[in-house]
UniProtKB/TrEMBL annotation:
SUPFAM superfamilies: Nucleotide-diphospho-sugar transferases, UDP-Glycosyltransferase/glycogen phosphorylase
Stated name of the protein: Glycosyltransferase 2-like domain-containing protein
UniProt xrefs under InterPro entries: Glyco_trans_2-like, Nucleotide-diphossugar_trans
Glycosyltransferase 2-like domain boundaries: 165-282
Domain of life: Bacteria
CDD domains membership: GT_2_like_c (cd04186)
Length: 810
């Protein structure tokens, strides 16, 4: 960094070493000894340091090394201490454990080796909207200047257009020319353009001298947006009319997507898309009309790529900065109501009339538009000066569309998801409360919860999931695959009572409340008691997923504990289910747990809801295909070293696996499943053992099941139902399991599974069953075939859905 000091360092020179030079001279000259420390950044971002430095009381590098790093101050613009700690909560404990001075030290020693992110990505950074508008305007200026200086623009318009673009404009020639250039570059279907000049005073008044291939109407006096649109669409010759503001950039394919959707069904009247402001945040993903006539751009200020905004739906209206309407519908309704001139509520009124005439308005997320919102920026008056006009037009809209708005939701932000899709209006809404976001890769019953959600959607219910922890996040692809169209509410980790507040505020919207897992009862017990006093309360359903006390009881037998007598076990069950009597129905996942609960407690109603599975193969493999299969497979999520899955792997790899390798030296064990990040070292320990492969989470297990020969489930303590065993058997892959899992499944020996009929959990018997099943094709085929029959019998998706309907519709 400082090549000039090389001549000063060495024997007989000014200083003997580089570090001596820094300590004697460099620190006073503000030289940095570290490539990671940016002095200019430090002074610019911390005013107190800058002020002290100016006063001569602080050296920046000295302050950061001895004080600033400990205060989580950032050494450069590429490392963000707060972000690093928030995104990687395990770091705090490791800093303490290893006596580190700062998050940055942790990053240098550990974080970068793990690939931990040190800074938010660019798309996550906040940008002021004015900055986006400045860039938008400057781009438009360059485009317009290029068109003007190069002799103009010629659009390749058609005499037989499929779509007519109607662009009402008042001044802002740069924006208009940029939009026309966008249409020329991005629209590939036959089109025409009608520009309505609403008495402009800039170069717009002679725009036809700059752009050829367009129709231009010059108005002598300013008539406002609705009237200008009406003048324009009446000149349209295409069957579809797209109303555009001139202050937009259209996304690729927008026109084609709009036409595809518009003509997809006879009753589609209008189409809009995602409107994105210049700083990259949403303006709207469709719009909501409340029952007082006020409106809301759905999703405003959120990321336009969030999964909830990538779903096509019926909406109250879409803004006319990009709104495509069938020409026949415009003829029927005579276009915009000019009562709303010069603007505000004109597209709201038009779309309301579209709905009242039995046509639909559709939001198509494939369409995206970048919009310079409130392009009147340059006219020296803020949007708030229009408040009086908005209020006046709102009153006119309410007067005119009273029948339309009386069927709308009351204005409340927590109703916005439901109100954002008009198809939700006739649906019964279900609230589901779960620990984590229910996606299959997490295991631990979350896959089964997802099956409940999918069944509810298939049955025509609408679903809200209240997620109690953000500990595990889901990728957008997972949400699109498993939770498409579901409202997701995340609890605030800093407010433990959020769930109760949520229930109290919104219970009347739900037909049923489906509570997952027994430990949730205590959190909401008072809310449930309060609900029982309500006349039109929702049904209350407890889905236990598993009776956790069973885990302790089975673990005690492994450890030989004398503390878990049957009386103690029953007390634990009663304590675990305290408050279960408040529910209209309690769901268990197997007959054994139902019998246990019925014996210990007197509840209103108990039932069994197993798993929803369809056999993924018609027949098991031929012997030739069987020979191509190889290796043992374990699938299961591990969140903590105290969990049943971790214990089972530890027992299997230490006690059973060596016995298998003696008989089958070439055998491999593939460990598949989600592991919590804090267990990375333990996962590496497993993979270092002979023949063991650690694959981690795999989104689609179909190929994994078809490639292996034997599934192993060496679970020694657990509760609930072994989902992955049933799943593997449904793919024609037989399993070796413990007697505990066989009891939970209620399957006999040979029905997809092998186990010790005597009820023991001996490593020798388990290993022998694995070896026999692996080497004996006839046994393998018989076990697999009977397993497919057991899945058909016990896991019918239709039975699963029927059971849910009976539960929900009490």
């Amino acid at each position: 960094m400082y090549p000039e000091i090389s001549s000063m360092v060495g024997r007989g020179k000014k200083v003997g070493s580089v570090i001596e030079h820094f300590l004697r001279y460099g620190i006073n000259e503000n030289k940095s000894p570290l490539p990671d420390f940016d002095i200019d950044f430090y002074l610019k971002n911390y005013k107190d340091i800058s002020d002290a430095y100016s006063a001569g009381t602080i050296k920046p590098i000295h302050h950061w090394l001895f004080i600033g790093a400990k205060e989580n101050r950032n050494p450069n613009r590429y490392f963000n201490s707060v972000y690093y700690l928030e995104k990687n909560p395990e770091v705090v404990k490791e800093i303490i454990a290893y006596n580190m001075q700062s998050p940055f030290e942790h990053f240098l020693w550990m974080g970068r080796k793990r690939g931990l992110k040190a800074n938010p990505s660019l798309v996550d950074l906040y940008v002021e909207e004015d900055a986006g508008k400045i860039i938008f305007a400057r781009k438009a200026e360059v485009v317009a200047d290029n068109i003007i200086s190069s002799g103009g623009l010629t659009l390749n318009t058609s005499a037989e257009p499929q779509i007519t673009f109607v662009i009402p404009v008042f001044n802002e020639i740069n924006f208009t020319l940029q939009l026309l250039a966008e249409l020329d570059a991005k629209v590939k279907l036959p089109y025409e353009v009608v520009v309505v000049d609403d008495a402009s005073t800039d170069m717009t008044s002679s725009i036809e001298q700059l752009v050829s291939g367009i129709k231009v109407i010059h108005l002598e006096q300013n008539v406002g947006f609705p009237s200008a649109c009406n003048i324009g669409w009446k000149m349209a010759t295409a069957p579809a009319v797209a109303f555009l503001n001139n202050d937009i950039e259209i996304g690729y394919g927008a026109a084609q997507y709009a036409l595809d959707t518009l003509h997809s069904e006879e009753n589609v009247g209008a189409v809009g898309g995602r409107i994105i402001r210049t700083h990259g945040k949403l303006q709207e993903a469709g719009c909501i009309v409340w029952n007082d006539g006020s409106v809301l751009g759905y999703g405003r200020d959120k990321s336009p790529v969030d999964p909830e905004f990538t779903r096509r739906k019926d909406v109250d209206y879409c803004s006319a900065c990009f709104l495509v309407v069938k020409k026949t519908v415009l003829d029927l309704l005579n276009g915009f109501d000019e009562t709303f001139a010069p603007g505000y509520y004109e597209e709201t009124d038009l779309c309301a009339r579209i709905w009242e005439n039995s046509y639909r308005v559709i939001y198509d997320p494939r369409i995206y538009i970048h919009h310079f919102e409130y392009a009147s920026f340059s006219k020296a008056r803020p949007p708030t000066v229009s408040a009086a006009l908005i209020g006046k037009h709102k009153k006119e809209f309410v007067r005119k569309q009273r029948f339309f708005i009386e069927r709308q939701e009351a204005p409340a932000i927590h109703y916005s998801f439901r109100a954002s899709d008009r198809q939700n209006k006739n649906k019964q809404w279900i609230l589901l409360i779960e620990d984590l976001i229910p996606i299959p890769r997490l295991g631990s019953g979350f896959g089964r919860t997802n099956q409940v959600v999918q069944s509810l959607l298939q049955l025509g219910f609408a679903v809200t999931i209240y997620i109690q922890s953000k500990r595990e996040t889901a990728q957008k692809s997972e949400i699109m695959q498993y939770l498409y169209g579901v409202e997701l509410i995340y609890a605030d980790d800093n407010h433990e009572d959020d769930l109760n507040t949520f229930i109290q505020n919104r219970y009347s919207n739900f037909h049923a409340i489906w509570v997952c897992r027994t430990h949730t009862i205590a959190k909401i017990r008072l809310s449930l008691q309060n609900l029982l006093t309500k006349k039109d309360r929702p049904s209350l359903i407890l889905d236990t997923e598993a009776i956790a006390s069973n885990r302790g009881y089975s673990l005690s037998s492994i450890l030989g504990s004398s503390g878990w007598s049957k009386a103690h076990f029953y007390k634990e069950v009663r304590d675990e289910l305290a408050g279960a009597e408040l529910f209209d129905e309690v769901i268990l996942v197997n007959e054994a747990e139902k019998q246990l609960v019925d014996e210990v407690l007197q509840l209103k109603k108990t039932s069994v809801l197993r798993l929803s599975l369809e056999n993924q193969v018609e027949t098991v493999s031929s012997k030739a295909a069987w020979k191509k299969r190889a290796g043992f497979l374990f699938v299961g999520a591990v969140f903590d070293a105290s969990t049943p899955n971790y214990d089972s792997l530890l027992w299997f790899t230490k006690s059973v696996w060596p016995l298998i390798l003696k008989e089958i030296p070439t055998a491999t064990l593939n460990i598949v499943g989600h592991w919590d990040s804090k267990l990375k070292k333990k996962a590496e320990d497993f993979s270092e053992q002979a023949g063991i492969i650690f694959s981690g989470a795999i989104a689609n297990l179909n190929d994994v099941y078809s490639q292996h020969r034997v599934f192993v489930a060496p679970t020694r303590f657990s509760a609930g139902i072994p989902v992955k065993v049933q799943e593997s058997v449904s793919h024609g892959l037989p399993a070796v399991v413990t007697p505990l899992l066989a009891q939970q499944l209620s399957w006999k020996n040979g029905e997809g599974i092998l186990f010790d009929d005597n009820g023991g959990c001996s490593e020798f018997i388990f290993a022998a069953a694995c070896i026999q099943l692996y080497n004996n094709f006839d046994l393998w085929r018989s076990t697999a075939e009977q397993g497919l029959a057991a899945v058909d019998r016990d896991c019918s998706p239709q039975h699963f859905r029927d059971r849910i309907v009976k539960t929900i519709c009490r």
